[in-house]
Amino acid sequence: MDSQAKTPWVGKLSLDLLFKDSKSEGFYPALHCEDGIKYRLYLKGIDSLNRDLLNHFMGQRVSLMGRADNLRGHWRLVVDSNDPSYLIEIAPDQAEVLPEKTNNPEAGGE
Q: Rounded distance, CA 21 to CA 64, Å?
């Protein structure tokens, strides 16, 4: 499944060791999505300011705008950092968005 349209991708951002035992072996930024797939991030137009911004969100749940492809059997997410819509946002967990309901009359319910 290759996606040519830019869409939001939500997952946990990390720095992973990829391509082990090959000349491309190294640490790459990756997005671990809820669908269980790990996408290597390919950052087009990256500069030091954007790299620092990306590093700031390592280990956090984020939303990235990009296109997914399966280049040579490896999933990657192509993100154009020159496009203002790529902005990284912390994606709230559903538990943070929906307040917990209580039926406890002592808590002020009827």
A: 29
